[in-house]
Design goal:
Elements: H1 4-14, E1 20-31, E2 36-45, E3 48-52, E4 57-62, E5 67-68, E6 72-77, H2 86-93, E7 98-103, H3 106-112, H4 114-124, E8 130-135, H5 153-156, E9 165-171, H6 174-178, H7 182-193, E10 198-200, H8 207-215, E11 220-221, H9 227-235, E12 239-240
Parallel strand pairs: 1-4, 1-5, 6-7, 7-8, 8-9, 9-10, 11-12
Antiparallel strand pairs: 1-2, 2-3
Protein name: Adenine deaminase
GO molecular function, one term: adenine deaminase activity
EC number: 3.5.4.2
């Protein structure tokens, strides 16, 4: 999103009243809105695309027919699973077209608690890609785990104010949601109070239990293993994330 303080400058460059910062020439632009591939130059000002075609420019870069496409977004990832820092993760992922990730740092939170989350957010500031976070909702994931930390609603609330934390992460404690557990509901309410979404994690939950889960204001799920399960959740207005990995097939 364009920052308001930059808007007049970008408008001026778009109209040609001042030079753009960079003009990428001889590009094949993939327009995802119309399904077209257009051969044109791309003008950039203050880090934003401000126009197409010929512009006076401070710097020109000949793409020699390379494709220009919007960056991909990964809406659910655990960076710690890669065993590298956010900075190193971005170096490995960015060249393949993913420019934004929404990471759930619940693995490091289970070990280091709030210190781990603070580290991930601070490290993301140094990254070359756009790393956003969802706040871990289930630390520990179950009462049967032995972890290095426990995050209750009071510990979570201050983090929800951080602009880099855009959601409450996957609510794995679906029995707690369905039974309206006070701590679980306090976490969900903390997100909703500042209009941030709550991601879901409800494998195999259906019928009235699913209706109760959705009624709590949980807006997504990435644990569907059958078409029928995905369709039932979709009919309730939940966003369905389709994924496949080495340890989670056809999910």
């Amino acid at each position: 999103m364009i920052k308001e303080k930059n808007r007049e400058t970008i408008i001026s460059a778009a109209t040609g009243k001042e030079p753009v910062d960079i003009l990428f020439t001889n590009a094949k632009v993939i327009n995802v809105f119309t399904g077209e591939i257009l051969e044109q130059s791309v003008a950039v000002k203050e880090g934003y695309i401000c126009g197409f075609g010929n512009y006076d420019a401070v710097r020109r870069v000949d793409l020699e027919g390379m494709y220009v496409a919007p960056g991909l977004m990964d809406s659910h990832v655990h960076i710690e699973s890669s065993m590298v820092t956010p900075v190193q993760f971005s170096r490995g992922v960015l060249p393949f077209g993913t420019t934004t990730v929404i990471a759930d740092p619940h693995e490091i939170a289970n070990v280091l608690g709030t210190r781990g989350i603070e580290y991930m957010v601070q490290s993301a500031e140094k990254s070359t890609m756009n790393i956003l976070f969802s706040m871990p909702s289930c630390v520990p994931a179950t009462d049967m785990e032995t972890t290095g930390a426990t995050l209750n609603a009071e510990a979570i609330a201050p983090f929800m104010q951080n602009n880099r934390i855009v959601a409450l992460a996957e609510m794995m404690n679906y029995p707690g949601v369905i039974s309206a557990d006070s701590q679980v509901m306090a976490k969900i309410k903390a997100a909703h109070k500042i209009r941030k979404p709550v991601d879901g994690h409800a494998p195999g939950v259906s019928g009235r239990d699913l209706w109760a889960y959705a009624a709590a204001g949980i807006s997504s799920d990435h644990e569907c293993t059958t078409t029928q399960e995905a369709l039932e959740k979709l009919r309730l207005g939940m966003h369905i994330m389709v994924r496949e990995g080495t340890c989670a097939k056809k999910s």
